[in-house]
């Protein structure tokens, strides 16, 4: 017999699949890589804290919602490494996944797809902070783990510098900190100086 709550719990299980999507960054201590659900939680907390530290005038509710939805498309598409050539097309598969989740019978969030699109293509202060912190956190984990992912995958200084350059426009303090850490990573041999 079908229960009216079944579609809702089915939807919750669909969301739970984000825990199965492994990323390339190792958690602090390097025991294992983080999964996308852990990253989304970390992103939400970091964005919330940083928005207050920097005294940004923004909607915390919108910021947290953007952080929570930002990797949902990876449930179907998987994670695409920042320095992968496939990154340019990953958004298409992710967008299709979010459409599927948005249309799920058990989804109670009517603006799920719109929120995902905002974090993907939006230019609000919330979206800008989210994008900056989304790059900051894996960078931070690389620094904390002696560049383990960078070393394993042969990442170069030029790749890291290019991928994080946009942060200088809106969050120069963060960018300067990252620049200093890039220099450290090269000096320590964690990043190839190329």
Strand and helix order: HEEHHHHHHHHHH
The radius of gyration is 18 Å
CATH architecture label name: Orthogonal Bundle
Residues in β-strands, percent: under 5%
Distance between the termini: 63 Å
Count of domains:
1
Q: Give me the CATH fold name.
A: Hypothetical protein af1432
Q: Count of helices? A: 11
Q: Are there runs of 5+ residues with pLDDT below 50, and where?
A: none
Helix content: 55-70%
Give the total of beta strands: 2
Shape category: globular
**Largest beta sheet: what is the strand line-up?**
1-2
CATH homologous superfamily annotation: Hypothetical protein af1432
How is the main sheet built? 2 strands, antiparallel
Supply the CATH class: Mainly Alpha
Mean pLDDT: 95
The structure class reads mainly alpha
Walk me through what this model shows:
- With 194 residues, this protein is mainly alpha-helical.
- It has one domain: Hypothetical protein af1432.
- 64% of the residues lie in helices and 4% in strands.
- The chain is built from eleven helices and two strands.
- It has a two-stranded antiparallel sheet with strand order 1-2.
- α9 (157-164) runs antiparallel to α11.
- The chain is globular and about 65 Å long.
